Amino acid sequence: MKKFVIVAALFLLLATITTLSAAPAVQAGQPEEVVDVLHTHYSNLFVFRTERKYLGALVEVVASNGEVVTAQRLQRRKMIIDFCDVKFGEYTIRISKGNESLEFTYVKK
After folding, report:
1. Cα(27)–Cα(30) distance, rounded to whole angstroms?
2. DSSP E strand boundaries for the chain
3. Which residues contact 80 (CB under 8 A, 6 or more apart)?
4. From residue 31, how far is each of 12, 51, 52, 88 by CA, in Å?
5. Which helix or strand (DSSP H or E) is residue 4 part of?
6. Structural domain tally of the chain?
7. Lowest mean pLDDT among 1-5, 20-24, 36-40, 60-64
8. Does residue 4 sit in the same domain as residue 44?
9. Do 40 and 20 belong together in one domain?
10. Which residue from 9, 15, 17, 91 lies 20 to 30 Å from 52 (Cα-Cα)?
């Protein structure tokens, strides 16, 4: 009975060590998200949250024909864009600060 307890304890110890040593390797390979696009149950809303370094960035909503629908500075990390009053079609949300620029596509159906 003592041998069984010792073997079981060694097995659990080895399993724990293996799991803990593999966890940092998995996390290191994943790229960090600079902007998280949040999902809502409202179909006319585009919601995103950025890192702090994007505070003050220019956020532009551009229609598929190239017309800038709206533009404003990012004052908080989270922004909600309401597409309720715009025409149907495809829009590009461009977030730019300095020489960095990110683009997302929103399709209003």
Report:
1. 6
2. 35-38, 45-50, 58-63, 68-73, 78-82, 89-97, 100-108
3. 45, 46, 47
4. 31, 14, 17, 34
5. helix 2-28
6. 2
7. 20-24
8. no
9. no
10. 91
Q: Please check whether residues 90 and 42 belong to one and the same domain.
A: yes
Reported as a pLDDT band with limits 50, 70 and 90, residue 66 is: very high
C-alpha distance from residue 40 to each of 43, 45, 98, 105 (Å) = 7, 7, 30, 16
Q: Are residues 18 and 64 in the same domain?
A: no
- Domain containing residue 9: 1-30
Q: Give the pLDDT band of residue 26 (cuts 50, 70, 90).
A: very low
Question: Which residue in the block uniquely carries the two structure tokens 């551009």?
Answer: 62
Place of tokens 């596509």: 105
Same domain, 39 and 67: yes
Q: Report the alpha-carbon distance of residue 91 to residue 78 in Å, rounded.
A: 19
